[in-house]
Specification:
Sodium/glucose cotransporter; mainly alpha; 479 residues; globular
């Protein structure tokens, strides 16, 4: 299946424009502060849009409607936890980030527990982000393969090659302002998609509500069951989602880098909280698009035998949207995907260069750091190509599940440093390994849903870290 030549031209022109913007900002980079934090000049509202754009990828755009298409809207309960988690981050983590001139989240860990624990935290981030970004690359490739009629393997190479070029040329300032434009574009594209779908469905919204009620209550949002094996419930959403967000937005360098790029702590807090309400709106919109796609497909089937539910939105865009509008919508999806990957590559490079600088036994000058950061971007781009070729299953849930495995131990480390003044490096290290082991045991031997993994991992890490610290302290006192 191929798109019209006009639509293809629109996509190409837009991607060239994004690359040109990255090239424009390259001349404004003097050191790592400019490259990784954009000189801390961005206003809070731009950072709010950038945070949303960073956590919103092609994985989200095509995976969220697919959830509602195949199920219902109970995923929205998970988003409610995003709001709670953001508030807790602004209350407990942000003050620590702005007490020094930090470039990465893990510099705070070094101040509290030493270089060894900073290295452990950075390795955890690099591993988690690479795996999670691999799932997102697979989602981007799915859109490209449907649009251009290529294999997903070729699509992976096309997308990452363009993304690496964009990231290599542009710094954080380019990423932030490109995020703003791309956020507005993909949100507009989602609204247009919703409008076109509603217009095409015979009977409009009345038909949607009737068909949704007759086919498994597709407009259902709340599920108050306490069954830990059920993925999306009110409790796993508000509690599990809050802990997941504290980890993803409070300890993951990709988001923390945006928070550190604010002019001050107040602007950082405003950006973080505002982004939560924006995310709630956009996920509601994405899920409603999925419900409408289900009702539309009752009249005009979109998927053939063997087609994955994740491809439902790309198939609708290619088959049903007018020429010209298809190009704009595909450009918006691909642009936000590339922006998301660009931000991740920038953060991976930042952690690789800065968090391991002491281990290398040398302190590079600003120009050397800048050159090394660009080389690390190329290396991480190559790794993402490899991970993007792996089979991941349902893309959105696969991304969340992969991130949930190590996030708990990382969050537990930050909680130890924040709330337990007696915790030391040995206790925190043992706690992290124990937290990760507990999550792997839960994954392998229970049916507990992944929405609880971060809560379990962080609680075990905190409790075990505090206990080991006190046991060693008591032995040292009696010896």
């Amino acid at each position: 299946m191929h798109i019209h030549l006009l639509d293809l031209a629109i996509v190409i022109v837009y991607l060239l424009g994004v690359t040109a913007l990255g090239v424009y900002f390259r001349g404004k980079q003097r050191d790592v502060h400019d490259y990784f934090l954009g000189g801390r000049t961005a206003p809070w509202w731009a950072l709010a849009f950038s945070i949303v754009a960073t956590e919103t990828s092609t994985l989200t755009i095509i995976g969220t409607p697919a959830l509602a298409y195949a199920g219902n809207m109970t995923f929205l309960q998970w988003v409610f936890g995003y709001l709670v988690g953001r508030y807790l981050i602004s209350l407990f983590f942000l003050p620590g980030y702005f007490r020094g001139d930090f470039l990465t989240a893990y510099a705070v860990i070094e101040k509290r527990f030493g270089q060894r624990m900073r290295t452990v935290a950075a390795v955890t981030f690099l591993t988690t982000r690479t795996l999670a970004e691999g799932v997102r690359v697979a989602a981007i490739a799915l859109v490209v393969s449907v649009a251009l009629g290529t294999s997903q393997r070729l699509a992976v190479f096309i997308v990452i090659a363009l993304t690496v070029l964009y990231t290599f040329e542009g710094g954080m300032k380019a990423v932030i302002w490109t995020d703003v434009a791309q956020f507005l574009l993909y949100l507009l594209g989602s609204v247009v998609t919703f409008g076109v779908l509603l217009h095409r469905i015979p009977g409009g919204w009345n038909e949607v509500t009737q068909a949704a009620a007759a086919n498994g209550h597709k407009l259902q949002v709340f599920n108050f069951t306490w069954n830990l094996a059920t993925i999306y419930t009110f409790w796993s959403g508000v509690i599990g989602g809050a802990f997941f967000t504290m980890a993803s937005h409070g300890t993951d360098q990709t988001i923390v880098q945006r928070l550190l790029a604010a002019r001050n702590q107040r602007d950082s807090r405003r950006a973080l909280l505002a982004s939560g309400f924006i995310v709630l709106f956009q996920f509601s919109l994405f899920l409603l698009v999925g419900v409408l796609l289900f009702v539309f497909a009752q009249h005009w089937p979109l998927l053939g035998p063997g087609d994955r539910a994740d491809s439902i939105l790309p198939h609708f865009l290619i088959r049903e949207m007018p020429t010209g509008l298809v190009g704009l919508l595909l450009a918006s999806i691909l642009a936000i995907a590339m922006s998301n990957a660009s931000g991740s590559l920038n953060s991976l490079a930042a952690s690789s260069v800065l968090d391991f600088a002491t281990l290398s036994g040398r302190k590079a000058d600003p120009a050397a750091f800048l050159r090394l950061s660009r080389r690390m971007t190329l290396m991480w781009g190559g790794l993402l190509i490899l991970f993007g070729l792996l089979p991941w299953g349902h893309l959105l849930e696969a991304g969340l599940r992969v991130a949930s495995l190590p996030f708990g131990s990382l969050l537990g480390l930050f909680l130890l440093g924040t709330f337990d003044s007696r915790a030391n490096a040995t206790g925190s290290l043992v706690g992290m390994f124990g937290g990760l082991a507990s999550v792997l045991l839960v994954l392998g031997y229970t049916k507990i849903a992944f929405t609880w993994y971060v809560l379990i991992g962080s609680c075990v890490t905190f409790a075990l870290g505090a206990l080991v610290t006190r046991v060693f302290a008591q032995r040292a006192a009696t010896s």
